[in-house]
């Protein structure tokens, strides 16, 4: 059985009736990483947020979203809050909107963890500190004392990733988790996701513009364009023999960029492409 099943997910703007996602269907099994790629505005973030019922007011959705066989539309908002985090954990594209601006980061993280786990304060601190170090956040204690506006977008994103690691969710939904990071940190973050997947069998939805990272972490790929899934398949097939012209365009742009980079480096560096 699939861990997550999405069937005919349609998302539209209530006021204008404009359809933003036109009936997407996809499945994820335990331990699977599904990458979602596609140009800006193609509906990747809307799709992710609809899975955790976090789209803004004025955005409506229909269609089946089932986790381990349970239709999530049966859950009340209160029950959904308990599902968010421990069952389906979303790492937002915009870190700032995910945090309470009036609270230090540490207090926000502990409040979230205490909804799901019975850990003591010191247990939580120890787990968070270890997870933050693992994603390259230096001085975790000082990060926890700070307010969201005092951290950069990349740091907030890494804080969210640390929280996801500690929460050990069934499904991690990561919306461009490596975009704001340098290549070395992105590599460390991907390793952490792989660790969670191998340890717990968590499934991962990984939205990214970085096809190098996608190639490394994803088992399967969905390609979105204008609110539709235009192609899907195993990662190696998508990279080797995409059938949709748009996917071929994405892959060839990435290859051209890699070649250009290799030329610039005088062929001295072996770039993972
Ligand atoms: N709250 C909203 N109200 C109305 N339209 C919206 C809203 N949020 C997103 N949209 C529209 O829906 C479409 C898809 O947006 P979405 O944020 O999902 O794109 P995306 O694929 O995540 O792009 P990016 O790669 O830039 O993050 C866009 O045309 C956007 O303008
Ligand atoms: Mg987005």
TrEMBL record:
Coiled-coil annotated residue ranges, if any: none
Membrane topology reported for the UniProt record: Peripheral membrane protein
Alphabetically ordered keywords of this record: ATP-binding, Cell membrane, Membrane, Nucleotide-binding, Transport
Pfam families noted in UniProt: ABC_tran
Molecular function (Gene Ontology), one example: ATP binding
Major location category of this protein: membrane
InterPro entries with a match to the protein in the record: AAA+_ATPase, ABC_Ni/Peptide_Import, ABC_transporter-like_ATP-bd, ABC_transporter-like_CS, P-loop_NTPase
Transmembrane feature ranges: none
Domain ABC transporter: 6-251
Localization: Cell membrane
Gene3D superfamilies: P-loop containing nucleotide triphosphate hydrolases (3.40.50.300)
PANTHER family per UniProt: DIPEPTIDE TRANSPORT ATP-BINDING PROTEIN DPPD, OLIGOPEPTIDE TRANSPORT ATP-BINDING PROTEIN APPD
Family note: Belongs to the ABC transporter superfamily.
Name of the molecule in the record: ABC transporter ATP-binding protein
Naturally occurring in which organism (per UniProt): Paenibacillus chartarius
């Amino acid at each position: 059985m699939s861990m997550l099943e999405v069937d005919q997910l349609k998302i539209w703007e209530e006021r204008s009736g404009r359809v933003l996602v036109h009936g997407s269907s996809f499945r994820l099994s335990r331990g699977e990483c599904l990458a979602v790629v596609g140009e800006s505005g193609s509906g990747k973030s809307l799709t992710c947020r609809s899975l955790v019922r976090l789209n803004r007011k004025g955005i409506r959705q229909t269609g089946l979203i089932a986790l381990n066989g349970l239709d999530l539309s049966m859950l009340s908002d209160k029950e959904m809050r308990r599902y968010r985090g421990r069952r389906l954990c979303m790492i937002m594209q915009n870190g700032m909107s995910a945090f309470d601006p009036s609270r230090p980061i540490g207090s926000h993280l502990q409040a979230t963890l205490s909804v799901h786990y019975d850990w003591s304060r010191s247990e939580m601190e120890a787990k968070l500190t270890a997870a933050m170090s693992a994603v390259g956040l230096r001085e975790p204690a000082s990060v926890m004392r700070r307010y969201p506006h005092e951290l950069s977008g990349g740091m907030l994103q890494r804080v969210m990733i640390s929280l996801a690691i500690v929460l050990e969710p069934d499904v991690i939904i990561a919306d461009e988790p490596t975009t704001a990071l340098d290549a070395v940190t992105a590599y460390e973050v991907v390793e952490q996701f792989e660790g969670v997947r191998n340890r717990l069998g968590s499934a991962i939805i990984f939205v990214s513009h970085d096809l190098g990272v996608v190639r490394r972490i994803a088992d399967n790929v969905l390609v979105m364009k204008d609110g539709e899934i235009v192609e899907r398949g195993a990662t190696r097939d998508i990279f080797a023999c995409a059938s949709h012209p748009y996917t071929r365009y994405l892959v060839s742009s990435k290859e051209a960029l890699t070649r250009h980079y290799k030329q610039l480096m005088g062929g001295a560096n072996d770039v993972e492409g």
